[in-house]
Amino acid sequence: MIKCNKIDIPEGNPFQHDSLDREETIKFLTQFIKTADTPLVLSIDSSWGNGKTTFVKMWDAYLKSTGIEIPSIYFSAWETDYAENALVALIGELTGEISKINHADDSKIKKGIDKVTKFGKKALKATLPAAVKMLSYGIFDVSHMLEGHADAKKYESITATLSESIAKSMIEGYGESKQTIDNFKKSLTELVSTLNKDKPLVIFVDELDRCNPKFAIEILERIKHIFSVENVVFVLSIDKEQLGHSIRAVYGNDFNTNGYLRRFINFDYILPAPRRDTYANVLFNRYELDINNRDIRELFDVFRFLSDSYELTLREMEYCISIVHMVANMQRVTMIDNTLFIFLIVLKTKEPNMYQDFICERLSIEDMIRHISGDIKIAEPALLISLEAKIACSKERNGNNLFAASTHYQTKLESTRESTPERHRYTAVIKEIIRLQNQGERVKLHDLVKVIEFSSNFNIQLNG
């Protein structure tokens, strides 16, 4: 397994490696939670792979930094969804992380944690389904079974008395459960006040959308009904669309997930999508790909256009460049290979079926050209011509007969007499093919595919 380095977030300088300009957003949101009424649940909504985890970890570090000092806790829901009960996970993370917070009066904090843990255990029991509740639904409704029995009236009398006793027990149990949860909320409020009377406790819940659907729903329910206390702010880092899929997996495809989530979330903040060209520059620097080198510069320019055209997420961008970096360390790739290579990597990432059809020659050159000029709308004319010429040459046997590729376009040109955009395109592609031929370039699709498939056998683990 190949692991890409995590972004370093120094405690004293959380924005030292803020390559996506998140500092302004984090400071704005910090001011918002400091002045908002509590309890509060705020969602940070962004699609998978666009840097939500790095964002909330950076925000968490900022809150802990000198001068801000707002108590905060980072909790990865996905890493704890093995727990059988969401309340156990929440209380365990809460008390464990609070015990690590430096405080002038640690003895008060310890007493507060002990109290929260004590009432938390009782709250856990209060939220478990009662066996008698299950028994009361039909199990004791046996009158139809006793019809005609000699002692039917006797048994009915016993059953009625028992049912009444169970109902009374359930009502009393409800009162006790409500009081237990109120006691837990009170102990949590006191603990938060001990931490800092003037500032809220911020609890970041990350990767909720990746959890088991039932666990994700249980987390939301517990936050709403048990942890909803004064001076506590929950920040949920989610892909709202994906979380909606999880909810529908439990409640059905026609379930109104937006209405459901509004019960739990007070405010949604859509994390601004970073500029892909900015992040491309960050990645090339991180992987030590020198854009002052002519070949690498061409690869960089092509990748920037393709990233926008295919709307790559940050994680998909890093995946592509990690493969380029790995291959660059194993062998030197010529300039022409670089351009086609990065195109094939991006195509495999976003359109795996089309990639397979292309390399297995089930997809014609014309179909591929229509894809890059129409479906994904590559707006840069020079890049379109360059890619078309290299794709056309790569499909010739062994990539050695560039003349055959140019002849194909010459035939198309001669059949198009009028001055049309297609005629101009054919002329430009022929010129590009001739240029490649004069430079002695050879495009071998087979060799590129072999390298790509080899690289794809590695499990590249991306972080953040």
- Main sheet strand line-up: 3-4-5-2-6
Overall CATH class of the largest domain: Alpha Beta
Main sheet summary = 5 strands, parallel
What's the CATH architecture of the largest domain?
3-Layer(aba) Sandwich
Global geometry: elongated
- In CATH, what is the homologous superfamily of the largest domain? P-loop containing nucleotide triphosphate hydrolases
SSE pattern, N- to C-terminal: EHEHEHHHHEHEHHEHHHHHHHHHHE
Q: Which structural category fits the helices and strands?
A: alpha/beta
Residue-averaged pLDDT: 80
CATH topology assignment of the largest domain: Rossmann fold
Distance between the termini: 17 Å
Rg estimate, integer Å: 31 Å
Low-confidence spans: 130-146
Descriptive terms for the model:
60% helix, alpha/beta, 464 residues, 5-stranded parallel sheet, Rossmann fold, two-stranded parallel ribbon, 2 domains
Plain-language structure description:
The chain is α/β, with parallel strands linked by helices and about 475 residues long. The protein has two domains: about 1-270, P-loop containing nucleotide triphosphate hydrolases (Rossmann fold, 3-Layer(aba) Sandwich), CATH 3.40.50.300; about 275-460, no CATH class. Helices cover about 60% and strands about 5% of the residues. The strands form two sheets. Strands 3-4-5-2-6 form a five-stranded parallel beta sheet, sandwiched between helices. A two-stranded parallel sheet has the order 1-7. The longest helix is centred in the middle third of the chain and has 44 residues, at about 150-195. It is elongated, with a radius of gyration of 31 Å.
